[in-house]
Amino acid sequence: MRRLVILASLALALAAACAPGRADLTVDWTFAGKSCDAAGVSKIQVAIEGEVLNPDTFNCLQSAGQINTGAYLGRYLLGNYNLTVYGLDANSNVLYQNTVQVQVGRGGTTVAVDAAPNPAAPGSVTLRWSFNGQNCAASGVTVVNASVDNQVLTDANNNADLPCSQNGVDGVQVSPLSPGQHSFDLVGKVSGTVKFALNGLLLTVAAGQDTPATPNLQPAAPTTASANLTWAFFNNGQTTGQSCAAANVDHVQIFFDPKSDGSGGTDSGTVPCSSNGVDGAAVDGVPEGIHSFAITGIRTVAGVQHIVYFTHHPPSTMFRIGLISDLFVPAESP
Q: Which residues 6+ apart lie within 8 Å of 160 measured at CB?
């Protein structure tokens, strides 16, 4: 009987020796050499190729406010793994990432991963504005309207009237913005009337980073907005529009605030289809609000003008006094 016990114990020992080994894996992270908080990272996501992590996402700041510098990922079979660390902003955009090969060995493994900036990660711009050298209170400005790349900025409620000052700070942060150069237009309103303006402020946004700027708006008194229209022409069933030259269209007639089917509206004039290499035209004197445009494409044959394209579904966008808004207007064959 004693011999049987000895044999059973030996069998268990052999089985344990033959079982695949596992060990702990811990990851420590930095982002371009910075802590997650200093790098503007809100959350860290970790992935291991071929494995399911739960949890796989960790907050940069712990509940007590300490900065999270790493995480215990669990026990893994001994061997090599591809581990990726992502640094995410508050909107889950990937600001940083890096993939490394990790060897899990007996006794456990701790790997340090420094994630590099994602070259395609969006950035932001922080504007701290003034008005002829004065702050919001001294200048009397209570509302600012702004546009980026000829698109009117709005808040989460689609409101274009941005408070001049919030929580004691004269300015606003604009995000997300793609890396590269962006053009800003700004106007400051006193008692609902534009009294200050700045157009064509060029700022370069770096991937995953904030770009600070201090625009100083100057006295101005614009009374209308402007539309920067571009267009293309679609035949039945086409999903890619044709240029003026390809569609053989030489002039375009523009209509302001047409009906929903493209008919009617105010005639805003007839212009060359293409000018200075651009298939489009500028329309001034646009009132504040949301407005639509339609066009007809005209082909001249033997001195006679023929309408060969027109807009079936007029697009619209927001306009604010002193700002330029881009709008693409398609026209389809009848």
A: 145, 152, 153, 154, 318, 320
